Amino acid sequence: MKIIQNYIDGRFVRGSREFPDINPADGSVVAQVSEADRSQVSEAVGAATSALRGDWGRLSIPKRAAILQKIADGIEGRFQEFVAAEVADTGKPVSLASKIDIPRGAANFRAFAELIKTAPLESYRTELADGSAALNYAVRKPLGVVGIITPWNLPLLLLTWKVAPALACGNCVVVKPSEETPGSATLLAEVMQEAGVPRGVFNLVHGFGPDSAGEFLTSHAGVDGFTFTGESSTGAAIMRTVAANVKPVSFELGGKNAAIVFADCDLEETIVGLTDAVFMNTGQVCLCAERIYVERPLFERFVLALKKKAEGLRLGWPTDETTTTGPLISKNHREKVLGYYGLARNEGATIVTGGGAPHFGDGRDTGFYVEPTILTGLAESARCVREEIFGPVCHIAPFDTEEEAIAKANDTKYGLAASVWTTQLKRGHRVAEQLRAGITWVNCWFLRDLRTPFGGMGLSGIGREGGMHSLNFYSELNNICVKL
Ligand code: NAD
Ligand code: 6OD
Description:
Aldehyde Dehydrogenase, Chain A, domain 2; 7-stranded mixed sheet; 6-stranded mixed sheet; 23% strand; binds nicotinamide-adenine-dinucleotide
C-alpha cells in the first residue's frame, strides 16, 4: 500500500504512526498516511528557520517570482496526477477538479509571482519645523516562518492560496493539510523539489488537529505567524493556542451564506448560478449559499426550477466525466449532514426534494453520498437556517420588501459571502453595499479575481487575504526614516 510521507528539510520522511486515507466514493483505503510527531514538527520549524536565515529570504524578487512560476509549471506538468490525487481523496467529480481545483493551484503561484514584482510600498517626505525634511519609506521583509493549516474541501486550491503569497514574500512555511486530503499537498512537495525550491523553504507535516501535528505546530514558539482555513470553532481553538506566544493570525472560517433573488432577475441565469452556489462540490464550499430569499411573486416558480436542477444532478463515481455530484468527505460528515436533514423535518420543514441518502446497488453504497436537498417552510430561528451544514442543501424562503430581504440575509453571526440576483443595476449595487459579507456577488457566484480582498466578518474570519492583503499579512513592513 502506498505511504504518503511528510516532507521536512527537503526530504520525504515517515512519521511515527500511520492512519488511512479514505476514498469517500466507496470507503476504500487510498493510502496510509505517515503522521508527524511533535519532534518532527519541531524539526520542520527548525528547517524553515534555517532556510530563512540562508539565501531564501535574501533572494531577489525576480528570482523568487521565477521559482513560483516554475512551481506553477510543475503543477501543470503533472496536472493529471494532481487531479487523480484530489479526486481520490475528496470524491469530487473529475470535471470539477480539472476545471477549478488544479488550475487554481497553478494560478495562485502565477498570480503572486506577478503581484510581488509590482507591489507598491509607501513613502512620505516629512517637512520639519526648522525647514529641513525627512524621507520615510517602507521596506518589505518576510514575516518569517509561517504555519499554514488547511481544510479538505478544496485542498490544493486553499493550500496554494496561502503558500504562494507566503513564498512570494520570502517566507519559509510549515504546512499541515487536512488529515482527510493529504495527497495533493504531498505531490506539491515533489513539485517544490523538482522546481529547485531550496530545502527547508517548504515543509509538509501530516496529521490531525488536537494532540497531533496541527496543535504541535500552533503551539510552537518558533513559528512567526499562522494562517488557517477551516471551521470557526477550530479557528477559536487555534487562536487560544497561539495567544500564548502572541503570534499574528489570518483566519478564513465558516459561513451561512445568503442569496437574494428579486422577481426582476434573469431567472435562467439565476437558476444556473444558484445551482452551482448550492450544490457545487456537494455543497462543501465555504461560499455556498445555504439560505435563499426569493421575492414572493417569483417564489413558487423559483422553487420548482431549482428542484428540477437538483433532481437533474448526476450522483456518480467521481472518476466518471458525466458525474456532477460526488459524495461528502467522510462517514462522520455524512452523519452530520443526514442529522440536519432529520432535524429539518423535526423543525417543520417541507422537503421539496432529497432529504435522505441515495441507494445505488453497487460499491458507492459504502461511500458517503447524500441526496441534494431543498427545504422550505422553516422559521428564521430554525437551527437548519442558522447553522452551517456544509452539504448539498439550501432553505428557500419568500420575502416581500428589499429591506426585509437584507435584514434576513444579515441576521447571522457569520459574514463570509452573499449574492444578489436582479436586472436592476441600481438595486444590485444598493443591496450589495448593505450586506454584511466579505464578498457579495451580483448576478454571479464564485467569480474570483485573485487581486481582490477575500475574507469574512464575524464568525467567518479575521483579516483579508488576496492581492496586496496577502502580501501585507505575509510581510513585516519596516519603516525607514532618513533625515535629509
Ligand atoms: P476543520 O476546522 O475541522 O479543519 C481544518 C484544519 O484544521 C485541518 O487541517 C485540521 O486537522 C486542523 N485542525 C483541527 N483542529 C485543530 C487544532 N486544534 N489545532 C490545529 N489544527 C487543527 O475544518 P474542515 O472540516 O477541514 O473544513 C470545513 C470548514 O472549513 C467549514 O466550516 C468551512 O466553511 C470552512 N472553510 C472556510 C473557508 C474560507 O475561505 N472562509 C474555506 C474553506 C473551508
Ligand atoms: O477562492 C478563494 O481564494 C478561496 N479562498 C475560496 C474559498 C472557498 C471555500 O471553500
